[in-house]
Write a structure and sequence with these properties.
mainly beta, 1 helix, about 140 residues
């Protein structure tokens, strides 16, 4: 039986700077030139209605604003990682993203805890942003 592989992102022209940044250990965000808000590249239009963005690099830690611990794999490819944490992280710049909290005692994870971004290289072109708890 062949190894079951996890699904991987498929970069587009719009998202390529984000994925290239992740592969280079940099978390890139879209900065709206009209209202100064920051977003992930899932947006083509800012909440203010602008389509004028520039790429910036996230500078600091994030904070857990929500999380769940997964005990049942949604796909056989994730079975070997059980249990694992999926969290909503609010970055210092205001953008929010869903990712995993890794290399952490599950009992230490809590809303409000500070995290830092680390990257998991999955192939020659893709790095995935993951997070680790910062020590208090």
């Amino acid at each position: 039986m062949s190894e079951v592989k996890k699904p991987q992102p498929t970069p587009t022209d719009w998202t390529q700077p984000f994925w290239s940044g992740c592969y280079s250990n940099r978390l890139k965000l879209l900065h709206c030139l009209s209202c100064d808000s920051n977003h992930l590249p899932t947006r083509l239009v800012c909440t203010c209605g602008s389509t004028e963005f520039e790429w910036i690099e996230s500078k600091g830690p994030g904070e857990i604003i929500s999380f769940t611990i997964v005990h049942r794999a949604p796909d056989p490819a994730f079975k070997g990682e059980l249990p694992y944490v999926i969290a909503i992280i609010e970055l210092q710049e205001g953008a929010r993203l869903m990712s995993n909290i890794i290399d952490t005692n599950l009992q230490e994870i809590a809303i409000g805890k500070k995290v830092e971004c680390v990257f998991e290289m999955v192939d020659e072109e893709i790095g995935l942003p993951k997070f680790k708890l910062l020590i208090d």
